[in-house]
Design a protein that fits this description.
Layout lengths: L6 H11 L4 H14 L15 H14 L4 E5 L7 H14 L4 E5 L8 H4 L4 E5 L2 E6 L1 H5 L4 E8 L1 H10 L3 E5 L6 E6 L5 H10 L2 E8 L6
Parallel strand pairs: 1-2
Antiparallel strand pairs: 3-4, 5-7, 5-8, 6-7
Helix pairs in contact: 1-2, 1-3, 2-3, 3-4
């Protein structure tokens, strides 16, 4: 992104790069800038624009190209909490009528960006532990993502014998990544079960507070 270019120049240039005639490129640039709520920043040089504005400008440029499907990688990466909270709703609104796949290591399920999606995939240690409607996953207070070392098979057997349910697992090798529905159990019971099976809970996170 040339530092001396303004937000407007960058977005319009991206549309032109996609092969659009100048008039159409300018029109699409205006539309995408409006979508990302960047009108106040149109004349701002990218080199001095806040990080959240530069991130939004990249998305505006992608929208202006008219691509059928957008792939977005970690739009919140590196942003301070205030910037992320301000940008997420604008991104959700701007992408609402488009086909888009968003990859992100730190997008909370409660984020407007995740809640606006049709489907969320929660990955824990490179293994899928949950998949479905983001709002339903975010509201799930009885399922946890768990990383466990030790005798995985004995833990799963004991868990199921005491009313818990295994949703997903990376397999019998240790350490393993599990998705566990607690049922009537409490999270402290998982530590008790693990201890009785000579296993160790390395990490535990409620699925409702996980990242999609």
């Amino acid at each position: 992104m040339p530092a001396r270019w303004t937000v407007r120049q960058y977005v319009a240039w991206s549309a032109r790069l996609a092969g659009q005639p100048r008039t159409l490129a300018e029109s699409n640039a205006s539309g995408s800038i409006e979508r990302l709520e960047l009108a106040a920043f149109e004349p701002t040089p990218l080199g001095v624009a806040p990080t959240a504005v530069r991130r939004a400008a990249v998305l505006a440029a992608a929208i202006a190209t008219g691509a059928g499907v957008l792939l977005v990688e970690d739009p919140m990466a590196g942003l301070l909490p205030d910037g992320a909270r301000a940008l997420a709703p604008a991104i959700a609104r701007s992408l609402g009528d488009r086909k888009v796949v968003i990859f992100g290591a730190r997008i909370p399920l409660e984020s407007p960006l995740a809640l606006a999606a049709d489907e969320a995939v929660v990955v824990h240690g490179s293994h899928v532990v949950a998949q479905g409607a983001p709002a339903e996953l975010a509201a799930d207070e009885r399922t946890v993502a768990l990383r466990l070392a030790g005798d995985i098979g004995a833990f799963v057997e004991a868990l199921q014998g005491q009313g818990g349910k295994l949703h997903a697992s990376s397999g019998p090798s240790s350490p393993a990544h599990l998705s566990v529905q607690l049922g009537t159990l409490r999270t402290r019971d998982l530590f008790r079960i693990a201890d009785s099976c000579k296993a160790v809970v390395l990490e535990l996170r409620p699925l409702g507070h996980a990242f999609a």
